[in-house]
Write a structure and sequence with these properties.
Blueprint lengths: L7 E4 L9 E6 L3 E6 L5 E5 H7 E5 L5
Antiparallel strand pairs: 1-2, 1-5, 2-3, 3-4
Amino acid sequence: MNINLGDRIQMKKQHPCGCNTFKVTRIGMDFKIVCEGCGREILLTRKAVEKGIKKILTDSGE
């Protein structure tokens, strides 16, 4: 999967606040994503992120 730092991603499941879009702030063996609804930071494994992604929204705002 081609995910870059700063990309916005849409996940299959919603965050408890109701938002399902996140911004990628760290890439490596694990990903740090920030909820765009409430601002919470979430640390997930690469496998969990790649499995849960519905769509990749780039910085340009596709």
